[in-house]
Structure formats: structure tokens, C-alpha cells
Fold:
Amino acid sequence: MANNETTLHYRIKEKMETEILTLWNREKSGSILNKEEKQLLKKEIARIERQITASFKVIVTTCITAGTKKVKNRRNFPLLIINECGQAIECEALVPIMNSRDRVILVGDDKQLRSVVTSRIAANAGLDRSLMERLHDSGIKPFKLYTQRRMRPELIKFCSDQFYGSELKTDVDYTKLIKLKNFPWTKEPILFENVEGTEELSSSGTSYINRAEAERVLNWLSKLFDHGVKSNDVAILVPYRGQFQYIKDLLSHKIGIEKFSETNVVSFDSMQGSESQFVIISLVRANSKTMGFNKDERRINVALSRAKSGLILLGHKKTMLTDRLWTAWIEHLRNYWMFQVTRIQSDKLIVYPLLFLTIALVGHFPPIHSVIFFLFSFSFFVF
Structure:
């Protein structure tokens, strides 16, 4: 969040004369100004805005605000940078471009979430795509950044393989990450729990909740806290508004434990562009038929690439296997992770494939040794 001292709102107030500041404060407090007072206040604010924007070489604003008088007074910017351009619809990006002079740099990821256009008519007319998509479809080759500096390489491996042609490299500062000792995951910071819960419609009738997953979210959140993780280092990601509100309610009822109520609960879409040391994902859907809009590849990419130090994902395995990409994610865990045995109070966790190691050893040791090791491994499985 921007420092108040860097915002236009703050600086306008700072430059107001006493008379204008009095009018400003009266209006903000709800007092009704007469016609002359309103005109005077409006005129002075516009004058100060022009004065302030003219004095700065760099202006940070939204695409739409770039088309208002506040910024248009500074015409012909020599350089325009539009960040998260993949989420800005084409006409939105054109607003600041009309005010630029020499160079335009579009920064974004066309493999992550697009802008939200609720009108089907507009979407069918092609108004839901970004300028970045148009340029890409026109054959213009983008300049790609191949080095990620957010997360541990194990956390980006799947997204790199699935969405970026296995081209992403990692150059992360490990001193800025958090390493937990004796936490029930492998040396690789991913944990997947198959929660045999059920989905149900929320009270609104338009969203979903999964009570079993919500309870497991709190369980794993407690374990993170027990390992010294702070509440501002954890984000809980949920795809449905119903689950969002249900988890918020559960957290608020943790009386006397502020760190629970302070934990950030966000939707997949709201998390784009953000990050957190640890991320707990609740997929909600449990019907063995469909993942709903959880199967959107861009949304999956965003959800799986927010964690810096560790990822805990709760989902219904049978339902996940109905989708190609979630099936690939489960296979990815099998192929790249040799999970150690972990038990939790509910006695229903991940299948940890020590069996793979046993199979690999068969033929390298005498038969009796292999059988003993197999029985030892099998006894640790959780069914």
C-alpha cells in the first residue's frame, strides 16, 4: 500500500490554504456547502492537482485515472509502463496509451488471470481480451523474464513445466524464506491432504462450502502457528465466496487468539500479483464429477504460484482426478516427491509412496529382505 505522503490526496491537503482546507474538512465531515463554496473548493483542488502532477517526473495511477484531468494535464509522457497488463481489457489499456509519446512497455503474464468481463455480449464481441493477448496473437514476440525470485524451486516446478515450457529458473534469496523444522512434509515444501468431505451449497444458494476442508484449514493453520509462523505470513486461498465467508466465521470464533482472526483469507483471483510465505488452499469441490471453475488453467496457475516457503493444499482426490491439470499435479507429486510418513489426528492424510522405493529395491536385495522392507513400508500407509 502506498505511503500517504506519496499520494495525490495527501499532497493536495498539504498545499491547501487555510480557507480551502476548512471547506475541505467541512465537506468531509458531512456538512453541506453552498454553491459558491463548492465551486471555490472544486476550482482550488483542480489547480493544486495540476501544480502537483506537473512537478513530478513519475506518476503512478490506474489506467482509467490516467484519462482524467488529473493526469491528462501532463500530456505526452515519454515512457508508459502498464503493469499486470494481462488483466486489463484492451480498451482499458488504450486510455493511458493515448497520453504517451515515445515508448510503451506492457508488463504481465498471459498465462495468468484475464480481466473479468461479466457481459456475455461484450465477451462474445471480443472485448474481454487484453492488448497483450492481441499483440501475442498477431505474432509479436514478447520479451520473457525467465528468472523467478519469489519461491523455492520445488514450488514453481509444476507451473514451470505446465505453463512455461520448463523454462523458468530460480534465483531466490533463501534468507528471506522461512524453513520449518519437523513440520509434517518432506524436504520439499508441499503437502497435499485428501479430505473426504462433501460440498454443499452456501446459504446464498449461488456458492459452495466444504465444512470438512474448512476444519482442516484451521488444523494446519494451528500447526503453522505452533511452529512459530506469524499470521501475516500465511494466506488462505479459496475459490468460492461461500467457503471464504465460512472460514472467516470460523477464524473469528477463535476467541482470545488474535492471530487466527488476523490471518488473511482471499480468493484465487484477488491473490494475483500477491504472495505469502505460506499458502493454504481449500479447493472446496467434492463430488467426483467436476472441479467447477477450479479447472480454469489460469486460476490454477495463480493459486499454485503464490507461496514462497510452503504450500498446503486440501482437496478431494477423486474430484481432482476428473480434471486433466489437477490429475497432472497429483502425478507431479508422485514423480518428484518421495514423501515421508506423516500421521495426523484425523488419520486420513496423503498416500506416501514408500512403496515406490520398495519396488525400486526389489531385485537388488535377496527376496526375503525385499519382503520385509515391503511389509515395513506397507504398515505406514494411511487408508
